Amino acid sequence: MLTETPLSNPLREGLLDGRRPQPFTLVIFGAAGDLAHRKLFPALYNLMLDHWLPTHFNIVGIARQPYTDEEFRREVKTSIKKFSRRPYGPEEFQLFADETHYITADFDDSKAYQQLKKLLTTMSKRQQIPSNYLFYMATPPSFYPVIARHLGEVGLNHDADENSWARVIVEKPFGRDLASAEDLNTDLHHVFEERQIFRIDHYLGKETVQNILVFRFANGIFEPLWNRQYIDHVQITVAESLGVEGRGSYYDNAGAIRDMVQNHMLQLMSLIAMEPPVAFDEDAVRDEKVKVLRAIRPFTTRDILDHTVHAQYESGFIDGTPVPGFLDEPDIASDSRTDTYVAMRLLIDNWRWAEVPFYLRTGKRLAKRATEIAIQFKTAPHRFFNQTATPELEPNVLTLKIQPDEGIALRFGAKVPGPMVRIRTVNMDFLYGTSFADAAPEAYERLLLDAMVGDSTLFTRKDEVEAAWTLVTSIMQGWARAKNPVATYESGTWGPREAEELIARDGFRWRRP
Ligand code: BG6
């Protein structure tokens, strides 16, 4: 087994130090699926290479595909070779896959859970390790309650003894509206306690997203400005150039509002808008985030039409290559009204943010991939430079660049050298790549590790998920009632004209990331 201490890495020091998990078994329901292959196996492998995993850890995959243990290990190897951040090495893989097992089963077959329990008990006894079990639901969401119920029936839902734990990670989508999310919460709570449930939102595992709190609350200079007195408005952009990428049947039932707004975007907004928590722990941080979600001004029917836009991509060009429109993608209904783009203007009714608009937009097949949060400050109160023929001064903008560029930029006016007072906007830039030597770990690495050590700060709590669905459900209902035409935009552009109009009504423009 690998015994060295974790590599020195300024991105991690202090964040994960002393957080090595106890021996555990990870049980992945849906182990033959895309998520397991692209994200989970590589994340675990990288955690092991970086020495974050304990000496004993086991992986059990469960899915319908008929694999033997050996075949499953080969699948895991393929996934690591293809998707791992760190390179595949035969000896390391041997170590990694040492205790990897597979159960071929339907998720509603109770015999499979008996078999699972037997396997888990045998491994814990043989290895003389505590019965620590992390169940990962990486299946279609309709199976989440089924799996939870069966785990409960065989008693795998409780901590086996006082030295052991049982936890469950639940993937998104967590429900498809408020009612179904509440039902799912009820079903899970029949079997697990809230402290055992880890609802994942992979955006919270991104280094640049975690840095939002560090930036705000570990520095003295920004927080005094972080309010309605100095901030004019906030723009949150999550732009993708990809289309639906073979996920047509899922996506046509979800749309951008469920796929991106309900989770990732409202999480970003909460982190930007929340009050300082009293501690960096799971209750304090999530208490403050949920307050933001609850303070978002509810939409009236009229507001939904005025302050939200939903649109679909048409054919166009991405990087010079022609791409089809959404309605011509596989598994999309020819008369689909599903949104691939959403823009909205939100207000937060509290002392800090009263009347400061938050503009959110996300879309597929946009001009480029870029996630950023731009905080635009109010202009200087007295502009005496105007008398020296200085053109309109631009406002200061602080941009938190989440991906693919990772960093923070502050835009401000500077004097152009010379005898005249001429002002030009310049940028002060922080780039992760130049300040830190090592590449950041993947979001799933951080989140899996947190679940292993039982820290749910970066996971979504029941009340948070329901507060986000309350807003999103009201918007979806408004669109359904209005039956207004879904706007369209050409692939490879920055979205529909209607979104430009939405923000222009307040006298602003969307930024070009
Ligand atoms: C997922 C969505 O949650 O996030 C996808 O289901 C989307 O549709 C993806 O492409 C974006 O994640 P990232 O990390 O690439 O920004």
SSE blueprint and pairings:
Layout: E1 24-29, H1 34-49, E2 57-63, H2 69-83, H3 90-97, E3 100-104, H4 110-127, E4 133-137, H5 144-153, E5 166-170, H6 178-191, E6 197-199, H7 207-217, E7 231-239, H8 248-273, H9 282-295, H10 301-307, E8 308-318, E9 321-323, E10 341-346, E11 358-363, E12 370-377, E13 397-403, E14 407-415, E15 423-431, H11 432-435, H12 443-453, H13 462-482, E16 487-491, H14 497-504
Parallel strand pairs: 1-2, 1-4, 2-3, 4-5, 5-6, 7-11, 8-16
Antiparallel strand pairs: 7-12, 8-9, 8-10, 10-11, 12-13, 13-14, 14-15
The chain binds 6-O-phosphono-beta-D-glucopyranose.
6-O-phosphono-beta-D-glucopyranose binds at residues 172, 240, 259.
Measured by DSSP, the beta-strand proportion falls in 15-25%
Parts with pLDDT < 50 across at least 5 consecutive residues:
1-16
What's the total count of β strands? 16
Q: Can you give the helix content as a percent range?
A: 25-40%
Distance between the termini: 45 Å
SSE class? alpha/beta
- Distinct ligands: 6-O-phosphono-beta-D-glucopyranose
Rg estimate, integer Å: 24 Å
Biggest beta-sheet profile: 10 strands, mixed
Output mean pLDDT: 93
How many DSSP helices?
A: 14
What best-fitting shape do the alpha-carbon axes yield? globular
What's the order of the H and E elements? EHEHHEHEHEHEHEHHHEEEEEEEEHHHEH
